[in-house]
Every structure is written in C-alpha cells, then in structure tokens.
Amino acid sequence: MSEPLLKVERLHKRFPVAGKRGALLHAVDDVSLSIGVGESLGLVGESGCGKSTLVRLLARLLDPTEGRIVFEGEDLASTPALRFARTAARARIQMVFQDPTDSLNPRYTAHDTIAEPLALLMGQRASAADRRVHEVADQVGLPSELLSRYPHQLSGGQKARVGIARALAVQPRLLILDEPTAALDVSVQAVVLQLLDRLRRELSLSYLFVSHDLNVVRLLTDRVAVMYLGKLVETGPSEALFRAPRHPYTQALVSSIPGQGSRIRLSGEVTSPIDPSPQVCRFHGRCPEGEDRCMRQTPPVVLLPGERMVVCHLAT
Ligand SMILES: Nc1ncnc2c1ncn2[C@@H]1O[C@H](COP(=O)(O)OP(=O)(O)OP(=O)(O)O)[C@@H](O)[C@H]1O
Ligand SMILES: [Mg+2]
C-alpha cells in the first residue's frame, strides 16, 4: 500500500482549566489516524467531543501537547503553529470554516479574499494571482462579476464558494472541512456539498470532513472516524460502518439517522473531560451494554476484518 498523505500518531491536546490549578482538559486524547491520497475521511461525534480541536491541530492552528502529524512524510507537529504559518506545507493543508460570514474579512472583496493566500504563502505578484483567482472562481462556479463584491453583497452560498476558492487557490492536497455547510439553508447545502464532491474527484484532493449530518457523511466519505470524549472509538469504511456499527456509541449515533429502525436513546451523565481516569471506558455510564470490566480496565483496540477498528471491551 502506498504511503498515506497524512498520518497522525498518538496525538494529544490538553488545555489548562481556568480556576483549577494543575487540572487539564483532555480535548484530544491519544488519537491516531491516516488519510490516503484522494481519500475522504469523515469525523463524527457529539458536540464537545474534540472534533474542532483535532482538525485545528492538523491544520496547525494549534500546537499539540504530544504526538506526531506526518504529512507527505514530514513531521509537522514539531514546528510551532506560528512558524508553520509561513512554511510551504501551509499551502498543502487548507481549511474551510463553518460560517463563511464569520471567516471572511468584511473589508476584502471576494477577489482579494481569494488572492490573499497566493501572495502570503506563494509570493505571487498581482498579475499571476489575478489569473489564478479567475481560474479558481471558475472551478467553484463563482461568476467573475461577483469577484468585486464584499461579503455583505453576497449570498450564503456565494460566500461559501469564496471560502472554498480561497482554500483551493494555493493548490492544497488536503482540505479540512469543519461543518462547511452548517450555516447554509438546506437547499444551498446540497449544492455546495455536490460541488465539494466534484472538486475532490477533479482535483484528486483528500478531505477531512467534520459534520453532524450523518447522511452527508455517509454520502461524501470513503471512511469514517467516530470520536467520543477526545478519543477515537471506531473507524472503518463508511458503508460498512453505517450498515453495521460495532461500538455501542456508534450504534446509538447511527440509530439517530431517520429510517434506521428504532432509536437508541442514551441516558446517564457524560464523563468529564477534565483529568479523566485512564482505567475506565469513557462511554461507561451511558453505554447501554456496559459491564463491570468497562469501569476497571482501559478498553482494548480491536482490529476487525475489512480494515475496521473498534475500541471496546465488548468487541473482544
Ligand atoms: N481553547 C480552548 N481552551 C480550553 N478548552 C477548550 C479550548 N478549545 C476547546 N476546548 C474544550 O475542548 C473540548 C472539545 O471542544 P471542540 O470544540 O473540539 O469540540 P467539537 O467536537 O468541535 O464540538 P462541536 O460539535 O460543538 O463543534 C470541549 O470540552 C471544549 O470546551
Ligand atoms: Mg466543532
């Protein structure tokens, strides 16, 4: 098998807790994953489980506490986020943010928004950048008449296209999409998602796709990683994982998709992410199938046929 584009090894991010000396919030806890060339990986899990923190580490907007981020064979984790912003690898990993209204500079026209990374990361002069802006606007279906407009003069869908064009301008290999359509109307969402799917094929891009919409994840990704309280609990090919989820948390998540049969409702308290005990399964207390050992032992990583992985005592 060829080398993955991105390989994440035992990544951790712990935040200090305000007002609690020495306490640490384990936002990302020992996460390992890889993304192949041209592959789309979905990242799912409930609010606060650490998805945005993980993708911000990978985009090198945050410094990890521990672990390796190997991209195209180069370890990026050792370069501090501030310095990374000026390296060539910065252009190879680009991020599309959730709300285009928040992430676009209101004082920049669409043209200048798309051109900025070309000057900053690639040192392109205005004329070369201008050609590239028109080229990439065309790729994302943004009419050139709109390039002179400011964000408040654009619709939500058009702003989303500007954000995507800006990310693509510098010819990245990996696009990180953190809820890229969550701020859009449902009808516009579908169009933007189709656009992203087409661009990935045409440009042979890899995606890391974060979304709460499991139907969208199922359609747009090759593989899925399920996160619970900072940890990956299950990974596998999307089709197989959604058809037959193995981790009790994934089973509950999948059962919430309309038309998936009876819904598994979780009760019980979510464990605190602050200094959690390593000897306990994080899902214990809410798990409908929890046993004694789940409270006393770290759950094992179980490799299953079909390139699947689940972290659960019950899978042994
Ligand atoms: N800068 C920070 N300082 C302290 N704690 C943080 C910081 N950023 C995130 N956290 C905490 O880390 C945990 C994970 O947050 P994160 O935003 O990554 O979750 P998420 O999965 O993206 O949630 P959502 O689905 O709501 O976007 C949360 O408990 C959050 O409060
Ligand atoms: Mg988030």
Would you mind describing this structure in some detail?
The chain is α/β, with parallel strands linked by helices and 316 residues long. The protein is 33% helix and 22% strand. It is built from twelve helices and twelve strands. The strands form two sheets. It has an eight-stranded mixed beta sheet with strand order 6-7-8-3-9-10-12-11, sandwiched between helices. A four-stranded antiparallel beta sheet has the order 2-1-4-5, covered by helices on one side. A hairpin with a 2-residue loop joins strand 9 (223-228) and strand 10. The model has no long low-confidence stretch (mean pLDDT 93). Magnesium ion binds next to helix 1.
What overall form do the CA principal axes indicate? Answer: globular
Helical content class = 25-40%
Category by helix and strand content: alpha/beta
> What profile does the largest beta sheet have?
8 strands, mixed
Q: Judging by the overall fold, what is the CATH architecture? A: 3-Layer(aba) Sandwich
- Note the run of SSEs as H and E: EEEHEEHHEHHHHEHEHEEHHHEE
As a whole number of angstroms, the C-alpha radius of gyration is: 20 Å
SS element count, helices: 12
Q: What are the distinct ligands in this entry?
A: adenosine-5'-triphosphate, magnesium ion
Distance between the termini: 27 Å
Strands ordered across the widest β-sheet:
6-7-8-3-9-10-12-11
